[in-house]
Write a structure and sequence with these properties.
- The structure is a single chain.
- The chain has helices at about 1-40, 45-65, 75-80, 85-100.
- The protein has about 110 residues and is mainly alpha-helical.
- The longest helix has about 40 residues, at about 1-40.
- The chain starts with a helix and ends in a 5-residue tail after the last helix.
């Protein structure tokens, strides 16, 4: 019985650790994608945020590491021609664009 309790605790800790690593990697990669775009263009732009976050959303959903927030699963059953990674690109890109806009970045 003690072993099962220990095993469940250990699995829960590993799941939390994996989730934290995924989120940290997502944020780090987001900045890795965004910085060269700003260096090439010589200025910060809202579109850099949209493209970076949208690309990561697409790749994360296509690989099965993250899900599509704010979109119920029934949407994909009702519209099978709409692939989840494309919706993920839109959702994550729009969220990053909104945060960048609130932060004062322009197009």
């Amino acid at each position: 019985m003690r072993f099962l309790r220990w095993y469940k605790t250990k699995c829960a800790c590993l799941a939390r650790f994996k989730r934290k690593v995924t989120y940290t990697t997502f944020i780090y990669t987001y900045h890795i994608l965004q910085c060269p775009m700003e260096a090439i263009h010589g200025r910060s732009s809202l579109l850099h945020n949209v493209i970076s976050a949208g690309t990561l959303g697409y790749l994360g959903i296509a690989s099965g590491r993250i899900g599509v927030p704010f979109v119920p699963q029934e949407f994909f059953m009702a519209y099978p021609q709409v692939p989840p990674p494309m919706v993920g690109f839109l959702v994550y890109g729009i969220m990053a664009g909104a945060f960048a806009g609130f932060g004062g970045k322009s197009l």
